[in-house]
Design brief:
heterodimer; A: alpha/beta; five-stranded parallel β-sheet; four-stranded antiparallel β-sheet; 12 strands; B: alpha/beta; five-stranded antiparallel β-sheet; 13 strands; about 20% strand
């Protein structure tokens, strides 16, 4: 996973490293001798990073091992991506494990794809499709760079193409033979058009997951799924809520304390007495 | 592993029509437990596919594959026969006088598997069925079907399904962990094939099983056992998921008190083994000694999950010396207060970066034509997770400077100190005992 960085204590040339400067300032870089790393906190030569321990600090920069969560936070967005909270739920519900075959459409910017690859690594397979050829190629290059090409196959394809009379498996839908996938994920504009292809590609006990931003899309898909004989059709909504703690100092409500008021009153009474006298 | 047909010896999650869920072992001779369920042999399920509807055939007294739309068709048929002519319920009185069927007879029909007969009996014996609207009749029949007609679905166990079943039956057993929270824990801790993981869990082995599954038989998982209040680990969840072979390959049980410290000789080994071998799954006793060396060799653990009934702060600081640089950790707690305290400590002492204290808001929706709305009941919280990445920091207040030198040598030294203390206490106790015995001897002789 991400080039087996767990084998060594120390950063080597060619490793993928997360340069962490702050919660909102993280970057994923590939360490190369002679290259410069420029950030707000300074300019660092990559040579400084080579030989440093994972988790150590060089100057103002922490060097951390790359994880799929860091990739989701730092990747270059070509499309709107799916974030950690939804990714965690999808992988949990699909019941993926090493050896599972999972099919995904569309690849987009590869945010979920990386996490799916991690879940089925090393013996499983992720087959991911996108109807945009350029995006599919960029994603494929990224998977290769991250050492995932043994697990991920990225192709350009429109999975919503409907089945025509007498056409073979490769001409419609996902282009895969029947009963291939243990898990299937869709994040496309018109998922209800692909439900027939989903039923064909998914194993009889496989799990299908659809991700849609609008409730109308969800309604159309659920109706189609019920017609096609899917069971346990459930719709969830998840949000991640973050908590931070600060220390708070409270000022007293009354600016003058009781004691001070009493003394002041006593002082006034004495003054009055003195005046009377 | 990813088979679609049920094999003998598999575990399945059975869901009955009235939403009762339980784990079943699918083997010839195993029976479903329940007084009002027809007696059936689970061996009939072997060879069928997972997630299918299973009916009980009353004539052959066997479990058979049911048709998916059958119950809907039956409802439609019965309603047609009943021809709901009613307009509304203005004349219906709710005083239990409408139904004249014999409950004993109905129960017998239910147990023998002829639930359809029971429903027909209920319809004919009801004084008010004919006067109901069509919609009300459908609703009534569906309700009675759930109760009287035996129907079951057998699902392949997955972590999500096991969690949902446990939350319905005994949530304390899994510390009220919700499905999405489990996903978050596994994601934040970056559990993957080949990682070195350490787990401290009081969820009856559920979190451990989830980690074993994610690791896919590669890497090492150190499961901490034997701490106060915990017994030997239960491997039932690994068995449900069918990942016993992966557990064998990757899992090592380590005892934080005794372990990570040389076992002096074979006598000690047998003493330990007889005391701690409560359950047969307690494995690799020899692994207890090599664990510390292994961890040292790889420069510290890379993924840590704490989901235990211990104080999160104490647990975290106990395991901190074992965590390597860039170790991703996830600490789960049902309550937020201890995690707030721990989060402040971590931030103030600069132990970790990317520290997050999160909770997931989870809502389920009913999506049906013209009837879409969120479910009325919603889970309040699924627990809280504190996560982050450990760093080595040269900041003057950094805790790393405190524990840096401490790493393993001091860890060993502390263990040996504890052992020495324990021996001293025992000697004291022994000497007191012998004194006491001598005292009584003297008294007797006197």
């Amino acid at each position: 996973m991400l080039r087996k960085t767990t084998d060594s204590d120390v950063i080597k040339e060619g490793d993928i490293v997360v340069a962490y400067m702050g919660f909102t300032a993280k970057r994923v870089i590939t360490v190369e001798q002679g290259k410069m790393f420029d950030c707000k906190k300074g300019n660092y030569k990559h040579d400084l990073f080579i030989g440093a321990k994972w988790g150590s600090k060089v100057g103002e920069v922490f060097l951390l091992r790359p994880t799929m969560e860091f990739w989701t936070d730092c990747l270059p967005h070509r499309t709107q991506i799916i974030y950690g909270c939804d990714i965690a739920l999808v992988i949990s519900r699909l019941g993926l494990r090493s050896g599972s075959v999972v099919v995904e459409a569309g690849t987009g910017s590869g945010s979920l794809s990386h996490s799916l690859a991690r879940a089925v690594y090393p013996e499983g397979k992720l087959l991911t499709f996108d109807f945009h050829e350029e995006r599919s190629k960029t994603a494929a290059a990224e998977f290769k760079h991250h050492g995932l090409e043994s697990v991920v196959v990225a192709k350009s394809r429109d999975v919503c193409v409907q089945r025509a009379e007498g056409c073979s498996d490769s001409d419609w839908g996902f282009g895969l033979p029947a009963n291939t996938a243990d898990g299937l994920f869709l994040d496309v504009p018109a998922p209800h058009l692909a439900v027939a292809a989903v039923k064909h590609t998914l194993k009889p006990d496989g799990v299908f997951c659809n991700f849609s931003p609008c409730v109308e899309q969800v309604q159309r898909v659920c109706e189609k799924l019920a017609e096609s004989g899917f069971t346990e059709i459930r719709t969830h909504e998840v949000l991640r809520r973050e908590y931070t703690e600060h220390s708070v100092w409270y000022n007293p409500v009354r600016s003058v304390t009781r004691e001070a008021r009493r003394k002041r009153k006593q002082g006034d009474v004495q003054k009055e007495d003195a005046e009377e006298v | 592993m990813c088979e679609s047909t049920i094999k003998s010896g598999d575990w399945g999650l059975a869901v009955l029509a009235d939403d009762k869920r339980f784990m079943i072992k699918i083997q010839k001779g195993e029976q479903l437990k329940g007084k009002k369920i027809p007696a059936c042999d689970l061996g009939d399920l072997i060879g069928l596919k997972w997630n299918q509807k299973i009916d009980f055939d009353a004539k052959e007294k066997k479990l058979v594959l049911g048709k998916e739309d059958e119950s809907e068709e039956t409802v439609a048929k019965l309603v047609e026969e009943g021809c709901g002519g009613g307009q509304d319920n203005r004349k219906l009185l709710d005083n239990n006088s409408a139904q004249t069927a014999d409950p004993e007879q109905l129960l017998q029909m239910r147990i023998s598997g002829s639930g359809e007969e029971a429903i027909k009996e209920l319809i004919t014996s009801s004084k008010t069925f004919m006067s109901k609207t069509k919609f009300a009749q459908e609703k009534y029949i569906k309700k009675k079907q759930k109760k009287y007609v035996f129907q079951m679905r057998v699902f392949k166990p997955t972590i999500s399904r096991i969690i949902e079943m446990s939350l319905l039956k005994k949530p304390e057993k899994i510390m009220h962990l919700r499905v999405d929270t489990m996903g978050e824990i596994l994601t934040f801790a970056n559990i993957h094939a080949g990682s070195s993981t350490m787990v401290l869990d009081s969820t009856a082995g559920l979190v451990t099983a989830a980690c074993v599954q994610r690791m896919g038989g590669q890497g090492k998982l150190y499961n901490i056992v034997g701490t106060q209040g915990k017994g030997a680990p239960t491997m039932m969840n690994c068995e449900y998921l069918g990942i016993n072979d992966w557990a064998e390959k990757t899992m090592v049980n380590v005892d934080l008190d005794r372990d990570l410290c040389e076992l002096p000789n074979n006598e000690e080994c047998t003493k330990l083994s007889s005391k701690n071998m409560i359950r047969r799954d307690y494995r690799s006793l020899l692994g207890l000694t090599s664990a510390a060396h292994e961890i040292q060799q790889i420069g510290g653990i890379q993924s840590v999950v704490i989901a235990s009934s211990h104080d999160p702060q104490e647990a975290f600081f106990e395991l901190l010396p074992l965590m390597g640089g860039s170790c991703t950790f996830a600490v789960y707690s049902r309550y937020i207060e201890p995690l707030v305290a721990l989060s402040s400590e971590i931030r103030n002492k600069w132990i970790a970066v990317n520290v997050r204290l999160t909770e997931t808001w989870w809502r389920e929706h009913q999506v049906l034509p013209n009837k879409t709305h969120p479910f009325v009941a919603m889970s309040g919280t699924g627990g809280f997770v504190l996560s982050g990445t450990i760093v080595e920091n040269n900041h003057p207040r950094s805790y790393w400077n405190v524990i840096k030198g401490m790493q393993f040598d001091a860890f060993f030294a502390r263990q040996l100190e504890k052992e020495a203390e324990r021996d001293a206490l025992q000697k004291q106790k022994q000497s007191l005992d012998t004194e006491g015995q001598e005292g009584t001897k003297r008294q007797k002789s006197e």
